[in-house]
Request: fold
Amino acid sequence: MTPPNISIVLIMLCFWVTLWLVNRFLIRPVNTVLEQRHEQIDGAEKAWTAKNEDLLSATGRIEDELIEAARAAAKTRETYRIGAHQDKQQKFDTARKEAEKKLESALEALSQDAEKARVELRERAESLSRELVQRLLGREVHP
Reply:
């Protein structure tokens, strides 16, 4: 029998040493870096999710506050609108009363002027008729 070939044992020994060196100095550090990156990515995703939830809740609160502010503004606007309408109505009523008073005094003055004009017309008509009768008769006529 022939003795076993020692070169195959040496090749196997070199293979296992090389495999151990590659595993020890290349594969493990690369795996460690990859695991760290995955952990960083997972941490960043969790942080992003938490921040996104905070953002959504803050946005919801702000929207609720805006809705409440809009309601308050509508109430305030309605209050001022009602107040302005009442003020306008009050001024309108005051102006109407003043106009009615002025109209009443103008009608009273017109009535007095009309009565004066009637009296004056009567007197003038009597005077003109007397004068006409005097001219027709040719003599003076007494009332």
